Amino acid sequence: MAQTITGERGVLDAANARLPRGYRMRAFEDADREPLVEAGNSENHPMERESPAEWRRWESMFNDPTRLRLVLVAPDDSVAGMGSIQAGFFARPDGSQQLGIGVRRDHRNKGIGSAMLDAFEAEAKRRSVPRILSGTSASRPFALEWAKKRGYREIGRRIMSYRELDSYEPAQWKDALDRVRTAGIRIRTYEEVLAERDDAGKERLWHEIWEAEGPMWEDIPFASPTPHWPFERYYKMTAKNPQLLRDLSLLAYDGDRIVGLTTTGDRESKDAWTYMTGVARDARGKGIAMALKVDVLARAKATGRRAMCTVNDEPNKAMRGVNIKLGYQPVPDHVELEKAL
Question: What pTM was estimated for this model as a whole?
C-alpha cells in the first residue's frame, strides 16, 4: 500500500506540472464512475455500452493491490478523463502491467493525454515494469495513431460479437445437436449437474470443470501470454460469481468425462455473455463447440434474453468461424498494444 501511495503522489505531481491551466488530476472516487461511463458510452457501439453498477460489481469480486487510478478534472470541476496502471485481472508472468489513458472528446488536442501518459509511464518504470500493455478501439483510428507515435505497437486484436436472439431459429440448427448426440455426447447445464450432487460432490464438480478448462485455456491464442488462473481465483470468479448463469452454462460429457464447456454470465439483466467456450484437444473436429453454441443460444432465447455476446482473439479462426456461421455480428475490433520499457 505504501508503494501505491508513493506512486500516486509522483504521478499527480508529474501530470499536474504539465497540464494546461485550470486542469488537474486527483485521486479516483467511486462517484466518478457515472460521468466516466457516460463519456465512454457516448463513443462506443451500442452493444459495448456499460453501466457504473456493472463496473462496481466486477471490481467488488477482485482486488488488485497494484491498481493506481487517477481522474482528470476540467476547469469547471467536471470529470474530463482518467488514467490508470494495474496488473489487471490476469497477472502476466513477466510482470507486465496494463496502462490506460482516456480524455473526454471535448478536452482533446490540448496535450493532456501526453502529460498523463508520461506521468504513468514514469510510474511503470518506477515499478520496474518490463512492458506496458494497453489498447484502443479500431473505431478510434486517431487514438491508435497517437499511441503508435509514442512507441506502442499492435500485438493483436480481440473481436467482440453478438447474436440478436429475436431472429435466431433453433430448429435450423437441429442437425448440429443430433450429430453430437449420435456420437454419444450429452450436453447438460451446470444447474442440472449440481442439483444431482451432495455438497462434497458440488465442490468436486468445480474442480472437474477447472481441470477440464486448463488445456482449453492454454490453446487460446492470447496476444500476450496469459496462464490459466489458479483454482482459488476460478472458484471465486465462477462458482461464487452472482453473475454466472448456471442454467445457460453447459457441459458436454463423453461418458463421465467433460469434453466441452461453455460458461455464460448475465449482462445488465437483458443480455448473456459467453465467458469461455472450449473443447478438449482429443475431442475437437466432432462438432461439439457448434452444438454447445446452438444449445445455449436456444436456451438464452427461451429465457427472454435480448442477445448473446462474446469475445474472441483474432487468430482463433475456428471459434470465430462458428460464431459467423451462427449469425454473430462484430463490433469494432479492440486493438491490443504493447510498449517495452
Answer: 0.92
